[in-house]
Amino acid sequence: MSIVFVPKKLRGKAKINQETIQRLLDENDQLIRCITEYMQKGRAVECVQYQQILHRNIVYLATIADASPNNMPPSSNSTSSETSASTSAVNAYGGTG
Prior knowledge:
With 97 residues, the protein is an all-alpha fold.
């Protein structure tokens, strides 16, 4: 069973550290290997449960990354010409600016 699966009463109480993240990444690696093996054997139906676990793990890791204070957006040290060039590029592709 995935380490991400936690009973509702325990959710939000787990400590997120580098070891937990690494275990999830290792688990994802193994899940991908299992999925690939089953697909090569033509057993796509068996892949579904592993794909669901992999999806849950990836969403969990993305949630951790989004909530992490270490993932600050780059500082705005760009010059005004770089900023206007970026705005022009966005406007050229239909964005607003």
